[in-house]
Design goal:
485 residues; alpha/beta; 4 domains; 4-stranded antiparallel beta sheet; 12 strands; binds S-adenosylmethionine; S-adenosyl-L-methionine; methyltransferase; RNA binding; RNA methyltransferase activity; RNA-binding
Length: 485
């Protein structure tokens, strides 16, 4: 279960949401029991916010983790309501495939024929019934009120009936009843992943042995890590200031143990630390540790936005006497890199890494942190697993190969390139590296040897290290180091 931390109860705070321009119209709507624009807001700010996130994701293709924080701020939702809104919105986005499978079994018509708001309310209700400790009567009652407020009273009976059917079984029983017969299909449904992603994980893991653990870890909310800026503050000091714990592997990492917005922590506000998954810290570390023959003062970060690894490379470069050129194609993201690396020896360039006006065969150390499917960071992007499809991979792999080639072209003989993705998909990781190494004659270095403190990192299908949420508590980051001949 994902959301066992959700506080029980119906979460009626008594405080209504902040007045919105259409509130007056709602108040003058038809009385209860008649169809119309609906009753006044139900006084359930958490579920209203969660519902608005689901709508934005479904209708506008929005990202839940970008929509929700603004919504909470704008409506001044905080504390337990904010925690509930977050659990419900992210939980329902993550579990959408499982929720829809159960709902399809409980509805007398195809889900595609349902009104969008009704479907969102049903998903939210099913999430509460199957994946939280909220009592069934509270979950169903809140869903009925929500649909009444948003779509009038006509669908209330339908929503009530469907959710009562959902509530007849718990999550495990529904999975037993509805899952395909094979282990992979059952685990994919039970842990709310599309089947094709479970298949990718099995390929990257080498067998089905760890699949249940990998999918379960991927179905949970990720821990938040900070990275102490090298040369400014140690992880020990950062942990003491923030009340967090030093990370198990990254010498700069701190695991936050308290909730709240990490952006508000004084060391983050003062630029002494950044919010960065420990896996990303380890990738930056690989890029900085890779052995270079001879001079080691010109570094390049070819896909730098929004700048997490550029900060780490810039700070380490400042210590080592190196400068970093950081490139991103997207002007907005290049701007974020510039902001994040202020005061560090980092020059930012906006342009396509394959064409940008930077010298060839010149850099000692290069990072290519390529755009990818993001299958290794699904915990952070609640809806992403249902948006991606297997067909995305081929086009991305072509771009990844061309970016790695561009990285090697900028590297001098004896210099090193670290290729990284936040995806464990072998077609984006080992296959890209093996193909470009074969084509260019670049030497593949033993990347696992660069992270001796991290166990079980070797990628299965080819060169490089593969981190996993269930093994390392990090995103499923991949990295491999090549030396230019
Ligand atoms: C995985 S992200 C990099 C994350 C970054 N290294 C960090 O640690 O914050 C990939 C980045 O590559 C950029 N990108 C995509 N195609 C590119 C290209 N052809 N040239 C340069 N940058 C590109 C994207 O805009 C995106 O910011």
């Amino acid at each position: 279960m994902t959301d066992s931390s959700v506080p029980p109860g119906g979460h009626r705070s008594g405080r209504g949401p902040r007045k919105r321009p259409d509130d007056r119209r709602r108040r003058s709507g038809p009385p209860r029991g008649r169809q119309g624009p609906g009753r006044p807001p139900a006084g359930d700010p958490a579920r209203e916010a969660a519902l608005d996130v689901l709508r934005a994701v479904r209708e506008d293709g929005a990202y839940a983790n970008l929509v929700l924080p603004g919504l909470l701020r704008e409506r001044r939702i905080s504390g337990r309501d904010a925690a509930l809104a977050t659990d419900l919105a992210y939980g329902a986005c993550r579990a959408q495939g499982l929720l829809d499978t159960v709902l399809a079994a409980c509805c007398d018509r195809p889900l595609a024929d349902l009104d969008g708001v009704v479907l969102d309310v049903l998903r939210l209700g099913t999430q509460q019934l199957l994946r939280t400790r909220i009592p069934p009567h509270a979950a169903v009652g809140a869903a009925v009120e929500l649909v009444r407020a948003r779509a009038g009273s006509r669908p209330t009976g339908f929503v009530n009936a469907v959710l009562r059917r959902v509530a007849e079984h718990d999550e495990a029983t529904w999975v037993d009843r509805l899952a395909p017969a094979d282990t992979l299909g059952r685990l994919a449904l039970a842990h709310a992943h599309p089947r094709w992603i479970a298949e990718v994980f099995v390929r990257a893991l080498g067998s089905e042995d760890e699949l249940a653990a990998a999918l379960a870890a991927d179905d949970a909310r990720p821990a938040v890590h900070l990275a102490a800026r090298p040369g400014e503050i140690s992880a020990e000091e950062l942990a003491a200031i923030t009340g967090g714990e030093e990370s198990p592997y990254s010498p700069y990492g701190v695991l936050l143990t308290e909730g709240g917005d990490p952006g508000d922590l004084p060391p983050v506000r003062e630029g002494l630390a950044v919010v960065q998954d420990e896996g990303s810290q380890l990738v930056a570390l690989v890029a900085a540790r890779a052995p270079v023959e001879g001079r080691d003062t010109r570094w390049l970060d070819l896909c730098a936005g929004p700048g997490g690894k550029a900060v780490m490379l810039g700070a380490l470069g400042a210590i080592e006497g190196a400068t970093v050129d950081a490139v991103d194609r997207a002007p907005h993201r290049a701007g974020l890199v510039a902001k994040a690396t202020e005061g560090l020896p980092v020059r930012v360039h906006t342009g396509d890494a394959r064409e940008v006006a930077l010298p060839e065969a010149a850099y000692d150390r290069v990072l290519v942190d390529a755009p990818c499917t993001g299958l290794g960071a699904l915990r952070r992007r609640p809806e992403a697993r249902w948006r991606r499809d297997a067909g995305d991979v081929e086009q991305l792999a072509e771009l990844q190969r061309s970016l790695l080639r561009a990285g090697l072209e900028r590297t001098r003989s004896g210099g090193v390139v670290t290729y990284a993705t936040c995806s464990p998909h072998p077609d984006e990781t080992t296959a890209v590296v093996a193909a470009v190494a074969a084509e260019t004659g670049a030497e593949l270095l033993d990347t696992a040897a660069l992270l001796p403190e991290v166990p079980d990192t070797e990628a299965v299908e080819g060169p490089g290290v593969q981190l996993w949420p269930h093994r390392h508590g990090t995103d499923a980051m991949y990295a491999a180091v090549l030396r230019r001949s």
